[in-house]
Give the backbone structure.
Amino acid sequence: MQPILKRSVPRHRGLYGAAIVLAIGLGLASRKFPAMFPAALEEYPGDALWAGMVFAGYCLLFPMARTWQPALLALVTSFAVEFSQLIQIAWLDQLRAITPGRLVLGSTFNQIDLLAYAIGIGSAAMLDRLWLSGPRELPA
């Protein structure tokens, strides 16, 4: 019987590293070329990709974690970053004013971003469960 907190097969770190690079590339492209996605989605595909990248980062750091664990960490991280945008501290605002800071920390709180994060993490977690995590042991 396998422990509840660990997977039986580790994740392939190369795949998750590639997923991070892909998410960053697509996320940046979604901001530079918004016509890649339907106009009704506005900037939310980039937000969902950002949160999926956070999930992939946790999977990279914890290759033996069960899918729900990096998903929960990614959700908490994403929500914390979004709610931190309500905090107005001079040095934090200066960090958000430069491009890397804005890409990582965002700039303005938007409740709908929380939904985009949940969708991005949920989608990434489904991919993890269905495809990217490698072979599974069949029940005896």
